[in-house]
């Protein structure tokens, strides 16, 4: 009797397939530059904001917009800068922040059923708005955040475009999911309402219990929510498993041999490269990679990596439960032409 020792490694390797390593290598330099400059000018908070923006914009490398190669990246950068400024101002009054977040989530949900590239840009805008709302301020703070987002996004676009031009073979966009040719108005309205309610509910709960970085909960709710109840449940479990794994790895890294700024920076760079590479692979693996990246970037700007990992996990549970709660009463069948998507963005 012979034991097959190759089956399990092959299965594990399959979880990270397809592995787009070129996207990881091309997307990293711009973010590394932003982190290095932030370290040199001793401004970790704005450097983390800029690096987070660069991370989100970098996902646009695998997309285009209206046929323009760098259109998705540019649109995301501009939209995130505007949303960041408005979110900073709206954050001073929670009802305004919650209502606007819910409205933006509804619009994003409609795009999810009609155009995947527009959905991705809209998702970055919603995320940027809710993140900024957690750090309220006046016009000066709003302008500073918008500037940091613009600088981070511009550096990422410039480095990506330069490196892509030097590659011996073209760096093409990744394939989209199946075309959404059977767009249904009734489905779009129902999905938009569920998205708005899920974001409103999860943000209210997370803020009400005083959860640090409460915006993680509504972001999770928006990403987990799918037109069908079964799909929402499956996506929620996948994200929870991935987030738990990412939190564990981030905690082991930050609480182990690399507790300083340099260790967090190295961890962030490795996690970002891996995240870009597995954005079309297993959703659990992708969620784990995104979680590690976010925990590292937030910790570089705010500190407390271990606590941040715990807050991220709790926010994921709140957001996932909120998505399931609003989906259960009125589940709606998913059109046959819609296939599972990928986040492709900071969450």
TrEMBL record:
Pfam families: FUSC_2
Keywords: Membrane, Transmembrane, Transmembrane helix
Subcellular localization, as worded in the UniProt entry: Membrane
Assigned GO CC terms: membrane
Bilayer topology term: Multi-pass membrane protein
Domain Integral membrane bound transporter: 204-326
Chief localization: membrane
Region forming the signal peptide: none
Record-annotated membrane-spanning stretches: 21-41, 47-63, 70-87, 93-113, 118-135, 147-167, 188-213, 250-274, 281-301, 313-330
InterPro entries for this protein: Memb_transporter_dom
Keyword Ion transport recorded: no
Name of the featured protein: Integral membrane bound transporter domain-containing protein
């Amino acid at each position: 009797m012979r034991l097959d020792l190759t089956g399990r490694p092959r299965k594990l390797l399959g979880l990270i397939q397809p592995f787009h390593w070129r996207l990881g290598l091309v997307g990293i330099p711009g973010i590394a530059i932003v982190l290095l400059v932030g370290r040199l000018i001793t401004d970790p908070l704005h450097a983390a904001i800029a690096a987070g923006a660069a991370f989100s914009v970098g996902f646009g490398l695998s997309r285009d917009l209206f046929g323009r190669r760098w259109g998705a990246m540019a649109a995301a950068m501009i939209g995130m800068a505007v949303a960041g400024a408005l979110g900073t101002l709206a954050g001073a009054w929670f009802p305004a922040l919650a209502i606007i977040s819910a409205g933006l989530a509804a619009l994003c949900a409609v795009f999810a059923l009609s155009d995947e590239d527009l959905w991705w840009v809209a998702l970055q805008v919603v995320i940027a708005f809710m993140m900024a709302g957690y750090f309220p301020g006046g016009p000066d703070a709003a302008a500073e955040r918008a500037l940091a987002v613009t600088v981070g996004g511009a550096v990422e676009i410039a480095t990506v475009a330069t490196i892509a031009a030097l590659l011996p073979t073209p760096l093409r966009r990744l394939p989209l999911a199946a075309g959404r040719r059977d767009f249904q108005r009734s489905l779009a309205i129902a999905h938009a309402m569920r998205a708005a309610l899920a974001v409103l509910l999860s943000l209210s709960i997370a803020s009400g219990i005083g959860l640090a970085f409460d915006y993680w909960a509504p972001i999770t709710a928006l990403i987990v929510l799918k037109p069908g109840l079964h799909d929402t449940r499956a996506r929620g479990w996948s994200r929870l498993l991935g987030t738990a794994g990412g939190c564990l790895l981030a905690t082991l890294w930050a609480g182990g041999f690399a507790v300083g700024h340099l260790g967090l920076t190295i961890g962030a760079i490795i996690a970002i490269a891996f995240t870009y590479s597995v954005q079309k692979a297993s959703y659990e693996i992708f969620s784990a990679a995104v979680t590690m990246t976010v925990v590292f970037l937030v910790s570089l700007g705010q500190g407390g990596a271990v606590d941040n990992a715990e807050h991220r996990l709790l926010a994921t549970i709140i957001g996932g439960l909120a998505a399931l709660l609003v989906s259960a009463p009125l589940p709606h069948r998913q059109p046959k032409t819609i296939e599972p998507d990928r986040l492709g963005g900071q969450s």
